[in-house]
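Internal ticket #5521
Category: modeling
Description: The requester needs a full-assembly model to guide mutagenesis choices. All entity lines are attached below as received. Residue total reported by intake: 707.
Assigned to: D.W.
Attached entities:
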Amino acid sequence: IAQRERSRAAAEEIDAYIDDLQRKLSYLARVQGFSELPPDILQTFLEALTRHNTAYESVAATDNRGRLVSAVAPYGHGFENDLTDSLAFRRAYQEHEDFFSPVEFGPAIQVPLVTMAVPIRDMQDEIAGALVAKVNLGFLWFVVSKTEVGDSGYAYLVDDRRFLVVQKGDLPKTGVLEDLSKRRFIQELIVARGEPPVITYHGLRGTKVLGTSARIASVNWHVVVELPLSEAYAPVRRMLIFIGGTLVLAMLAALGLGLYFSGQAVLPLEKLTAASQRIQSGDFAVRVHVESGHELGMLATTFNTMTTRLQELIAGLERNVAEREKLIDELETKNTELERFTYTVSHDLKSPLITIKGFLGMLEQDVLAGDRERLETDIQYIANAADKMYHLLEDLLELSRIGRMVNPSEGIVLSELLHEALELVSGRISQKGVRVDVAPDLPAVYGDPIRIREVFENLIDNAVKYMGEQPEPHVEIGMRKDQDDRIFFVKDNGLGIESAYHDKVFDLFEQLNPNKEGTGVGLATVKRIIELHDGRIWVESEGMGKGTAFCFTLGKEKTQL
Amino acid sequence: MSEKASTILLVEDNPAHAELIIRIFQQHCIANTLYHMQDGEEALNYLFRKGDCTHPESSPRPDLILLDLRLPKKDGFEVLQEVKNSENLRKIPLIVLSTSDAGQDIRRAYAAHANSYLMKPVEFQKFAELLDRVAVYWLHWNCRMR
C-alpha cells in the first residue's frame, strides 16, 4: 500500500511537471497572431520560455512550411533549420494536434528527451506554423530518485511504448532505451483501467520484489515501484517475531496463571475428591484444608462441616448399635442363665424334697421297728435336706439381688473391707485353724463396697471349706501387677482344682465335691459381682492337692482410684 | 423270685438319696451286692478298672447300672457315653435315675442308648415301688447275657 502511494505520488509529480511544460507551450499557441509577431519579439517570448524552465532544451517557431522562424537554444543543442518533414511539425501544423514524441536520447547529450509541438496561429486565428520544443527529461531522474522506496527499493519510469525511461540511482548513459514491453510483470502491472495491482515477481534488477505501478495520465507513462521482498516482508517478519514473542509470553503467562489457578482450584478439588473417596471407604476423620476465600474454600468448609456432622451421626449410630448389642448380649446371657436356673432349681429343690419325703417314709418304719438309732439318723437326713433347701433359697435370692447393683460405687479401702470379710467367716477359720495373711500394701479400689466384701467373703470361705486334710492350712490375700492390670488373689494351699474344672466352678449349682456343704451358688455370685465391676475372674491351680488361687481384676483404670 | 447273685452299680452324688436307695433295696432283698459311686469319675474308674479300682475282684462287672445325671466332675451323660462306647460295657443294662424331667435330658439319654429313663418320685412309697419293679424287671424277668 505504501508503494502504491509512493508510485502514485511520483506519477502525479511527473504528470504535473509535464503538464506544466505542455501548458506553457499551449498557452503561447493560443495567442492570436503569434506567428505574425516580429521576429525579435518572438525571440523574446521563446527566450522567456527557456528561462522559465531549464527543461526546455530548445524551443523554435516555424512558419507554415516548417522553416524555422525563430529559435532559442540556450545550451547549444538547437534544431535543424527545416522541420518540414519532422513528425512534430506535421502533427502540429497539418493535423492541428499537440504533439508529444516518444522518449529518445539526444544525439549530442546523453539525456532522454521528448519533443513537443503545438500549432501556432496568425491574426485570423488560422494555423500558420508550429511551436516545437525539446524537453530534457533529466528532472524525471530526479523525481524517480527522490522517490523513497524503503531502504533497498527503487522506482523507474516506462513510457507509452513500455520503454524504460529513467530509473532510480542510474543516470542513463547509453543512448539506447531498454524495451520492457515483453516483460510479463510490466504487462501485469500496467492495466487498462482500475487500480494497478500489487504483485510479487522477479523485478527489474533480478531480485524478487513486491511491485506496483501508477499511471502518468497526461502522457500514458507509468511509474513502477519495486521493493525487494526481503525488505518488504521485514516489517511482517518483525511483526511475526513480535507476535510470536507476544504469543510465547502470553502462553507462559497462561501457563503460570493455569498453575496458579490449579493451586487455587484444581488442587482443592483434588483434595476434595480424595477426601470424598476416603469417606466412601469409611474414613470419616478426614478433613480438607483449603486456604482460600473463594467458592472452593467455602465448599471445603461446608465439606468439612458435613463430614464432621456425618462422623457424629455415624458415631452416634455406632454407639446405639454397640449399646443395643451389649443389651442383647446381656439379655441372652440372662435368658440362658434363667433357663439354666429354672432347670437347676427344679432339680436342686426337688432333690432335698425327695430326701425329706423318703426319710419321712423311713421314719415310719423306724418307729414300727423301734430302731431309735436309725430314727435319729433319718431325722438328721431330713433336717439337712431342709437346711439345704433353705440355703438354696437364700442364695438364689442373693443371686437375683446382685443383678441390680443397689449400692453406688465409691472408693474402697481394701484393708478395712477385708477385715470385715474375715470377721464374717472367722468362725470357720478358727474352727479349722487356718492361718490368713493379708498383704499390707493393698491399694484402694472403686466399686460397690458391700458386693466387693461379698466377693472376698465367698472366696475366703471357699478356700477354708476346701482345705482338705492340709496340716498347715494357709490362706493368702494380696495383689500383683500384670502390665496395666491389678490382679487381686485369694490363694490357699488346700485341695486344688483340676484344670478341666477351672471354668465349670463358676457355673450355677456346680459342685465338685458332693460331700461338702454349699449350694453351688457362691462362685456364680462372685463371678456375677466381678463382671458387674467390669472385671474378670479365673482359677489358678496346678491340680489336686496343689492349692487354689482365685484371681480377679476390677475393671479398667478409670474405675479405680 | 429266683435268688441269683446279682450286682448293682449305683452312681449317685446325693448321699441322702444313695442312703435311701440302698435301704429300699435292702428292705426288698433285691441285691446281693451294691456298689455306690459318688461321681462320674469314680464310676468310670470302677467300670474301666482304673485308678483305685484296678483289681477285678474288688470291682466286679455289675448286672445293672443305676445312673444319676447331675454328678460332680464327670456328669451322668459322660458316664453314659463312655459305657455305651465300650464293647464290653454297653451290654450292661443302664438305667438313668434322675430328678430331672426335662425333655432335653430324656432325649439326650436315649440318644446315648440309655436302656431306660426313670424319674425319682418325690413320694417315698412310689420311690420304693419303682425301685422294686426295676429290680424285678431287670434282674429277674429280663434275660441277662450269659
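Resolution: model delivered.
Comment from assignee: The two ends of chain A are 103 Å apart (CA to CA).
Ticket closed.
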